[in-house]
Amino acid sequence: MASGGFRPLNEKSLIEYIKATPALFSKLANQLEDLQIKEVGDGNLNFVYIVVSSGGSFVIKQALPYVRCIGESWPMTRERAYFEARALKVHGGLCPRHVPEVYHFDREMSLIGMRYLEPPHIILRKGLIAGIIYPLLAEHMADYMASTLFGTSLLSYSTMEHKGAVAEFCGNVELCRLTEQVVFSDPYKESEYNRWSSPYLDCDAKKIREDNALKSAIGELKSKFCERAQALIHGDLHTGSVMVTTDSTQIIDPEFAFYGPMGFDIGAFLGNLILAFYAQDGHSDQKNDRKAYKEWILRTLVETWNLFHKKFIALWDENKGGPGDAYPPSIYNNYDLHLLVQKKFMRELFLDTLGFAAAKMIRRIVGIAHVEDFESIASVAKRAQCEQRALNFATNVLRERNFPDINAVVEVIWQYNS
Questions:
Q1: What is the DSSP secondary-structure string of 195-224?
Q2: pLDDT value at 1 more than 70
Q3: 346 in helix, strand or coil?
Q4: What percent of the chain is predicted at pLDDT more than 70?
Q5: Residue 231 burial class via C-beta count within 10 angstroms: exposed 0-12, middle 13-18, buried 19 and up
Q6: Reduced to 3 states, what is the DSSP secondary structure of residue 138?
Q7: Ramachandran region of residue 379, left (φ > 0), alpha (ψ -120 to 50) or beta?
Q8: DSSP state, 380?
């Protein structure tokens, strides 16, 4: 296998690396005659290469020692590649239907080789901007989140297994710190990295920085993010981390993975669906007002939570006599008690989900690293109008998230749509 210390690869040097790495070379049937390599990394952190030949295909992802979207002035550990590879393998073992297979990992080179999700797979965010309906999205995302969150929690693991896994992923501290900064800190203070659609949102950004209730709420969520090792979470489960066709859903890029609160993953996904909802008016035109599509997004929001709830409870019921140490059957030994603890657990998880969804929405509007849903709206004034509606919804939910159910959340989403 290729070795010799870390070096960033380009399209030319990658060919030599592949030839020296049997696990990759064999995926191309050991021939390079018609090889095509294309760098497609449009994210904030890494190089990503698509490698295709008549003999096969795969994707190479290499972590750089800095934040790509900022440059070398913002150093970043390359060890994130190790945690991404580990999370892909753990989550892939629990939910192989929705996690691409890892073919090769080189820790010294911070490099992962994995399945290429061939066309027509596209990034979900781009599909939502284009107005494409994905009829199985809610089912697939609920399946992924229920399987991975339940399967790495104390509902499934013994305390020995769980603490060992928590200890391993504690090493991903730099990316956790990055999340703490950009989600839970920067939007609520003056920061050189913050930006928004100025001058339209100047007052909105200022109000957030001066809102004591918001700061109190975000502080509580930050504590949960930092302290609550519930399950191995993806850590960055937005619509840019999901690749889709009308019948396939694949979750990628878990480099922020660590043992954290389950609601952070669920909230990240649902919050990004809500961002997509509020962005739709900026993509409408005389031929398509996007109203039907907005209704589909909100149906998907409701179905995702409800199906997740159903699948998670089903896994719990199926495994209540298993090795999980959270609720030992010797103590939780009757039906009424079992229902009671499930109801309490899922209620708290729902409220966590709403809080984290709101936090993720706010940071995408007045913090660093905005979303293409809004950024692709040509008119800054129209973009700001869409962003302001989303921001008003998110700040309201962050202050008071005691909703009875997901349908009540949807009612409030519509209220802020005008």
A1: --STTTTHHHHHHHHH-HHHHHHHHHHHHH
A2: no
A3: helix
A4: 98
A5: buried
A6: helix
A7: beta
A8: H
Inter-residue contact 235 to 226 (CB < 8 Å): no
Give the per-residue pLDDT at 87: 98
Give the 3-state secondary structure of residue 308.
helix
Strand order in the sheet with 56-63: 36-39, 46-53, 56-63, 111-114, 102-106
Enter the tokens of residue 233.
Answer: 């979470």
Q: Does the CA dihedral 186-194-376-282 come out positive or negative?
A: positive
CA angle 43/44/47 to nearest 5° reads 65
As given in the structure block, the two tokens for residue 28 are 């191309």
* Tokens coding 40: 């497609």
Q: How far is CA 202 from CA 180, 186, 190, 365, in A?
A: 23, 15, 12, 11
What residues pair up with 37 in beta bridges, in sequence order? 51
CA distance 197 to 41: 25
Average model confidence (pLDDT) across the chain: 96
Could you tell me the CA-to-CA distances from 144 to 1, 104, 200, 252, 272 in Å, in that order? 33, 23, 38, 12, 17
Residue 23 backbone class (left: φ over 0; alpha: ψ -120 to 50; beta: rest)? alpha
Cβ of 317: how many Cβ atoms within 10 Å?
11
Mean pLDDT to the nearest integer, 105-124: 98
Helix (H) or strand (E) holding 46: strand 46-53
Cis, peptide link before residue 120, omega less than 30° from 0? yes
Helical (H) or strand (E) element with 50: strand 46-53
> Which distant-in-sequence residues (6+ apart) come within 8 Å of 185 by Cβ?
191, 222
Residues 251, 169: contact at Cβ < 8 Å?
Answer: no
Residues 6 or more apart whose Cβ sits within 8 Å of residue 171: 79, 82, 83
Over the stretch 181-222, which tens digit does the pLDDT of each residue have? 999 999 999 999 999 999 999 999 999 999 999 999 999 999
Q: What span, in angstroms and rounded, lies between the C-alpha atoms of 134 and 127?
A: 9
pTM over 0.70: yes
- Measured distance between the N- and C-terminal CA atoms of the chain, rounded to whole angstroms: 58
Burial class for 136, CB neighbours closer than 10 Å (0-12, 13-18, 19+): middle
